[in-house]
Amino acid sequence: MTDFTGKHGLIVGVANKRSISWAIARAVAGRGARLALTYQGERLEENVRELAQELTDPLILPCDVTSDEQVAEVYRAIGREFGGLDFLLHGVAFAPREELEGPFVQTTREGFRIALDVSAYSLVSLTRGAVPLMAARGGGSVLTLTYLGSERVFPNYNVMGVAKAALEAAMRYLASDLGPQNIRVNAISAGPIKTLAASGISGFTSILGIYRDHAPLRRTVDAEEVAAAAAFLLSGDASAVTGDVFYVDGGFHAMGM
Ligand code: NAD
Ligand code: IMJ
Question: Hey, which of 94, 152, 157 would you mutate to test ligand 1's pocket, going by the most ligand atoms within 8 Å of its Cβ?
Answer without folding.
Answer: 94
